[in-house]
Write a structure and sequence with these properties.
Chain lengths: ~220, ~400, ~325
């Protein structure tokens, strides 16, 4: 359901170029994106998520050419259809756990916050074992707890695609397992493609598909 | 909009210290000129109202401002005294009647105003409790004077002694309080009101003593008799309190026309009469000056307004600098929040929504500052009049 | 003559001047009834009433059994006087209590102001000094001005002037009524003059030094002692009288009230008869100022018509 064709990208200041002739990810497929640092893994992830726009070529998600959308439309599409988890958790310090989970609803006009969304947020928080901390602020959470909140945030909008950029890089083994377990479970339930950039060899093993960016980009 | 308000409010609430500092500084910048303006306006109103109800004022030649401040607002008089006959000069003109004022003495920090019962009628004073002055040695208190001195009806007030170099000049007198005046909102609330003759008693121009004229040969109070003159020694008491028993013995030495007063309120029969009277005082060979208090106060206020305008201008300059600083602080805080903004954008936050949220934060701060500045200005407006009267008093 | 010219001048001056008071506030009690005038003795009350009735209400506060010259108002009386539209004073040191009270100078008229030349100063018996001030006297003035009908007329004119200035609407009435009063006073004066002229060299003794103005007006040869009608004089006082009689032949002592019979008896044994001349300071039991003064003139007529005093004592 994700299809990439003849993608090229370069930063305006130059010094880096990414070329990708073709990439296909099917529904429910879990893909680990690997490669050395600086080779463009995060850039590719951002291109697939519509955060960056390619110089040429196309990115289609469920037949929607995301790469051709205007900035506002890409942002709306991302808010509606994608879930993203980053290496640095990136919770808002001034919102408690539940409000951080519901952040997508607050910052996107494409989403409307309703009771169903609030209920989902509570359930997700309970699922990741943070029921007793749902009104706590990020400064009171451990690293693992913060990343679990970030995962909940990525899932609360019921996305059709999941992206992760080194989501377990700063976590211990237990937290890593919990975080990835949650993502895998969701991807399997919703048949959502899950694309994760990772350096972790153990994590890589858990993905059925491993793509080395050096092989994708000649 | 609900989400925008939610996000902005949560941010400000979480960083309440920073929010408080911003709100406080902006509200102070707004309050300073507003509050000053209100205070000055109210002060001007109080001063002007008082001056406008006083048509003409006569005093010894010298500073018109000092005369106005002492006679209207009961500041310590810095002008010389003049003679009581100046009251008759006004009365004899047929154009106005004169009300004498003696302002030299205090009881504690309250000015003792020696005058006639006409003053009360002129100023529209009414009795709140007790009665009017009737007998020599009595006093009445303004509402604030009663509170400041901590006395009320049937208590006594003691006039303060004069300066250390004036031991013989002022005669501490214990005065019964026979009445308390109703509040007027003017400097009359601060005074101890006495008859002008009582003020002269305090000044040592009259006193009572035991009758030595009929003392016998061996009476120890008598030093000697020289013909029909009886010389008494210092054991003869000069009373510090005038009572029914000793009142008759009180007598003035000399002609009251020559006794000191500090001001005469001249109440003209008509506008034309006041113009004629002013002409006589300006052109005639009179040893005193006649002023129009409202003119003097207006000149004083011009100066006050100029000072206020400069202060407000200075305040505005500070305000501009502070606004620029606040803008810089805000810009820097945007930079500090760069990652937060990137995160929001990455998870699909609309740029417009983001800008609105940041705008809402600024708006909240400004609105809170405006509200606080407004409340402070209202407080000044309510109590500033009191402060202005105290300054005026 | 001089006094009549003075009265005329005062009428002209007072008719022309204003006391600076707005006519709109002509009466403090206008809203509540008649304007209120207080006086400090009966003759003034009588004059005000004669001139201003029924326009004003006149009151006089001293009790009927007290000499108003020695009455001392209490606070209540002073507060009552403060409510007056006008306070009519005798002046000439009469109201010794004035220095002790708080009253509005604007509402006072001192009826002997301007009579300076005619006022009789009194010498006090002793002066005193204390501390560093040196000796000083307490000067007074004789104050029974109403006993001289011409001075009484001047006082009445002073009253009329102020009344007319305060209540100009009634000025005509005041003027008419004053003129009538002045005529009667002038007639009284003429009658007294005629009586005295009948025996110009007659010396009389006055029991009390309160007849100065009467004596001055009619040029009487008179001496005063200081006797009270309800008291027997002591031997010093009798000796003083004998000394006076030794210098002046006097066949009459004139009293302010009927003396004790034993006193009048002893006087008679000395060849001095007693007669009463009521100074009329307070409200008479019956009659009015003029009836009292006419009775006084009848007494005077008897005194001046009597034979010369018998020789030897």
């Amino acid at each position: 359901m994700i299809a990439v064709r003849d993608l090229t990208f370069g930063y305006p200041q130059g010094g880096f170029e990414l070329r990708l002739r073709e990439l296909k990810v099917t529904r429910g497929e879990g893909v680990a994106l690997v490669g050395p640092s600086g080779c463009g893994k995060t850039t590719l992830l951002h291109l697939l998520a519509g955060i960056l726009r390619p110089v040429s070529g196309s990115v289609l998600i469920d037949d929607v050419e995301v790469s051709a959308l205007r900035l506002e439309d890409r942002q709306d599409y991302r808010a509606l259809s994608m879930g993203l988890v980053f290496q640095e958790f990136e919770l808002l310090e001034y919102l408690d756990v539940l409000d951080n989970v519901l952040l997508p609803y607050r910052i996107s006009p494409a989403l409307g916050l309703d009771e169903a969304a609030k209920q989902r947020a509570v359930e997700l928080v309970e699922q990741v074992g943070l029921a007793d901390k749902k009104n706590s602020y990020p400064r009171r959470l451990s690293q693992g707890e913060r990343q679990r909140v970030a995962v909940c945030r990525s899932l609360v909008t019921r996305p059709r695609v999941l992206f992760g950029d080194e989501p377990t890089a700063n976590l211990d083994a237990d937290n890593r397992d919990q975080v990835m377990g949650t993502l895998f479970r969701y991807a399997a339930e919703k048949q959502a493609p899950l694309i994760v950039v990772t350096h972790d060899p153990e994590l890589r093993e858990r993905f059925p598909t491993v793509l080395d960016i050096r092989e994708l980009t000649p | 909009m609900r989400d925008v308000i939610f996000m902005a409010w949560r941010y400000l609430r979480f960083y309440r210290g920073k929010t408080a500092v911003l709100v406080a500084s902006i509200s102070l910048i707004l309050f300073l000129p507003a509050g000053l303006h209100v205070l000055v306006e109210q002060g001007a109103e109080v001063l002007t109202a008082r001056a406008e109800t006083t048509p003409l004022l006569i005093g010894a030649k010298g500073s018109a401002v000092d005369l106005t401040l002492s006679a209207l607002y009961f500041r310590p008089p810095h002008v010389e005294s003049m003679r009581h006959r100046e009251v008759k000069r006004v009365d004899r003109s047929g154009l106005a009647h004169g009300i004498p004022m003696h302002l030299r003495f205090t009881a504690g920090r309250q000015r003792i105003v020696g005058t006639t019962i006409d003053y009360a009628e002129f100023r529209g004073l009414t009795v709140d409790r007790g009665r009017w002055l009737a007998m020599l040695g009595e006093c009445m208190l303004g509402s604030e004077a009663a509170r400041a001195l901590g006395v009320d009806l049937d208590d006594h007030v003691l006039s303060s002694a004069g300066s250390a170099f004036d031991v013989a000049g002022s005669f501490p007198l214990k005065m019964p309080v026979v009445g308390v005046l109703a509040p007027t909102g003017t400097s009359d609330d601060e005074i101890v009101l006495v008859d002008i003759k009582t003020a002269w008693v305090i000044a040592g121009l009259a006193h009572g003593h035991e009758d030595v004229n009929s003392a016998g040969k061996d009476d120890g109070r008598v030093l000697q008799r020289e013909g029909r003159n009886v010389v008494a020694n210092a054991s003869v008491l000069s009373y510090t309190e005038i009572t029914v028993e000793n009142m008759d013995s009180f007598h003035f030495h000399g002609n009251p026309d020559g006794f000191p007063i500090d001001a005469v309120l001249a109440v003209p029969a008509s506008f034309k009469a006041s113009v004629l009277l002013r002409g006589r005082y300006e052109e005639g060979d009179v040893p005193v000056q006649m002023i129009v208090p409202s003119v003097v106060v207006n000149e004083l206020l011009e100066t006050m307004f100029s000072v206020r305008d400069w202060v407000v201008l200075g305040g505005l300059a500070v305000g501009v600098a502070s606004a620029m600083t606040a803008a810089l602080v805000f810009a820097l805080s945007i930079r500090v929040r760069r990652r937060e903004i990137e995160t929001i954008q990455k998870i699909g936050g609309a740029r417009k929504r983001l800008v609105t949220i940041l705008g809402a934060e600024i708006t909240f701060v400004i609105v809170m500052a405006v509200v606080i500045a407004g409340v402070l200005t209202a407080v000044v407006s309510r109590f500033g009049e009191l402060a202005a009267r105290l300054v005026g008093a | 003559m001089k006094i009549l010219l003075f009265i005329a001048a005062m009428l002209v001056i007072l008719a022309g001047c204003s006391d600076g008071r707005n006519e709109a506030t002509e009466s403090a009690s206008a809203g509540a009834g008649k304007p209120l005038v207080y006086t400090t003795n009966y003759p003034l009350q009588y004059f005000v009433d004669r001139i201003a009735a029924p326009v004003v209400e006149v009151r006089f506060l001293a009790p009927g059994d007290e000499d108003p010259a020695y009455w001392r108002p209490d606070a209540e009386s002073v507060l009552a006087m403060q409510k007056a539209d006008l306070l009519v004073l005798n002046g000439a040191s009469y109201e010794g209590w004035l220095k002790n009270v708080s009253l509005s100078p604007q509402r006072m008229v001192v009826t002997t102001d301007g009579l300076g030349d005619f006022l009789i100063p009194l010498e006090t018996e002793t002066t005193h000094s204390h501390g560093l001030e040196g000796e000083h006297e307490h000067h007074g003035t004789a104050f029974t001005t109403w006993l001289d009908p011409t001075l009484a007329a001047a006082q009445a004119a002073s009253i009329e002037g102020v009344l007319a200035a305060r209540w100009p609407r009634h000025a005509d009435r005041f003027a008419t009524q004053l003129a009538e009063l002045t005529r009667e006073l002038t007639a009284l004066d003429a009658e007294a003059q005629a009586i005295v002229a009948g025996n110009p060299g007659l010396t009389v003794i006055f029991s009390h030094p309160i007849y100065q103005y009467f004596i001055q007006r009619y040029g009487l040869s008179a001496r005063s002692v200081h006797w009270e009608p309800d008291q027997m004089p002591d031997e010093t006082q009798w000796r003083e009288l004998r000394a006076i009689l030794g210098e002046f032949r006097a066949a009459w002592m004139i009293w302010e009230a009927p003396p004790l019979p034993q006193v009048s008896g002893r006087l008679a044994s000395m060849g001095v008869r007693s007669a009463v001349f009521d100074p009329c300071a307070n409200t008479p039991g019956s009659g009015d100022y003029f009836s009292v003064m006419r009775e006084n003139l009848e007494t005077l007529r008897r005194v001046f018509a009597a034979d010369r005093p018998p020789a030897g004592r």
